[in-house]
């Protein structure tokens, strides 16, 4: 997208009344909300600092695409299988590393995510390397991983166009993503009130005490991480459908860091806060495209980094519980 | 290869296992020695020596980065994710002097070190000291360091953009000895880097300041009670960490090229060296950095070079899982 430069230093509100702008922002924010719900469960409610969400997204997205393109499975079967694979991967990573100190766990999960990304970059036979995955061409036949979704997408659009002629083509994806966010928030809030959820809180507050009460804390932390991995996988699917491609660059550690930005902005120990934080952060980030500064695309990208950096620093310094977080529930590491 | 992974003894009697646990350094070097021997048998002396020499260059960069990071980590309990971007900052400051102002490389590197040290001191004054006074937790500080990393990167991207730049160095000239070849720049990196590392090691080992640093790393509160001016020692720590990071960045920039991700890409291997060396142990970090560089380059004799970074991260994960206190660390550090 190139910036319209004819109006230097002008700021138009036109963008904010533009349907295309909002559908883009809301889909991105929704995808980040799904990822960050997992982080909230881990960081906000279990006290495990997971820096590997981008890795789980990549495992989910790549597994789904590879199952469709290489194994010839249907998209609808590939998704649940990819969720299971990602979950198993999360357990595999968590089993040895969840015994580690918080800071070590953070570094191990970050390294894990990078191993996944670099493996995707280098195992070119399976993942398409830097070009990534989208369609397979065999003679005149072409199969793409999102074909099944595209046909659903088109039929929904066709139906909606009956009464809303200029509907935004992103609407079906937007609905699916936000349905996931809402179901996620309701379900997570529910399990947080069950005995299982209370044990998670106990692990967060004092793991030794929970263990002394006979709770297998490692098992609870593993389950927390596995659920987070599932949410990561779902976000991985949605990102792949949104971008219509899967490339290693889309799963850089930056994704996890931005998700932490969303988490902190919304506030620790609040699932609703995650959704609001995601919409706020992405409205800010995408809205910056429309502040018509006489600067290059590159500098706008630099400003986005600076904005997320400032959000992280200022919130941590002056309001570590975020906008909706509960101060008394905040555990920021001992 | 897999130095940390094999630090655990082979099954063979309790005594052997005990002594291996007590002498992890000996075990690690024994294992590396065996692997090097095996590689010499398989690939010949020349190839192994040449790969080790290349690895020493890479290892010098890791070691320079790791010594500063481990001092900050050990003394301030700060997992500084901005350390990688300190390296990038040093490299671009050197670029400013060397290319933009057209001054000699030595002056450029010195300026890069000074500017990055100043950046470290500034971050301490503006962020870390006030946050410590507030009693901020580990996650709070870590997320702030990520925010700082974003801001440094955005400043670099603002002024220099994302295009790849090179310092004014001769990358074609090389020196031959004993049938081995080393580029002139590589030789400069190894000589300058190792000389500075030796000087820093001497300061930490033999001077009163070094003794105080080690005391703070052991127990900050106790050091303060013992009458050490901790504030001053912490400032010196940032001075060292910043200058070494600036040097590492400038040298890394001279070896390859400059781009805004330069430092962040080096951060995980540097963390690996910090952890393998035992957090807070500058000698451990120094040795582990050099060894890690050599091990990663040796791995290219067995696997394709494009996998070598992945390999380094895998080594970190395996090492952390098997011996989280590092090869040079003591179990009590956990």
How would you describe this structure to a colleague?
- The complex is a heterodimer of chains A (334) and B (334).
- Chain A has a single domain, classed as ABC transporter involved in vitamin B12 uptake, BtuC (Orthogonal Bundle).
- The radius of gyration of chain A is 21 Å and the shape is globular.
- Chain A is mainly alpha-helical and 334 residues long.
- In chain A, helix 2 (53-69) packs parallel to helix 4 (102-122), helix 2 (53-69) packs across helix 10 (217-243) and helix 8 crosses helix 10.
- Chain A has helices at residues 19-46, 53-69, 75-97, 102-122, 124-127, 147-161, 171-193, 195-205, 207-212, 217-243, 253-266, 271-287, 297-318, and strands spanning 10-11, 135-138, 141-144, 291-292.
- The model of chain A is unreliable at 1-9 (pLDDT under 50).
- In chain A, the strands form 2 sheets. In chain A, strands 1-4 form a two-stranded antiparallel sheet. In chain A, strands 2-3 form a two-stranded antiparallel sheet.
- In chain A, a hairpin with a 2-residue loop joins strand 2 and strand 3.
- Chain B is mainly α and 334 residues long.
- Chain B has a single domain (5-333), classed as ABC transporter involved in vitamin B12 uptake, BtuC, CATH 1.10.3470.
- Chain B has 13 helices and 2 strands, in the order H-H-H-H-H-H-E-E-H-H-H-H-H-H-H.
- Chain B has helices spanning 14-22, 24-43, 45-76, 83-100, 105-133, 138-160, 184-206, 208-218, 220-225, 230-255, 262-276, 282-299, 308-322, and strands spanning 174-177, 180-183.
- A two-stranded antiparallel ribbon of chain B has the order 1-2.
- In chain B, helix 4 (83-100) packs across helix 10 (230-255), helix 7 packs across helix 8 (208-218) and helix 8 (208-218) packs across helix 10.
- The longest helix of chain B has 32 residues, at 45-76.
- The radius of gyration of chain B is 20 Å and the shape is globular.
- The two termini of chain B are 25 Å apart.
- Residues 1-10 of chain B have low confidence and may be disordered.
- Chains A and B meet through helix 4, helix 11 and helix 13 of A and helix 5, helix 6, helix 11 and helix 13 of B.
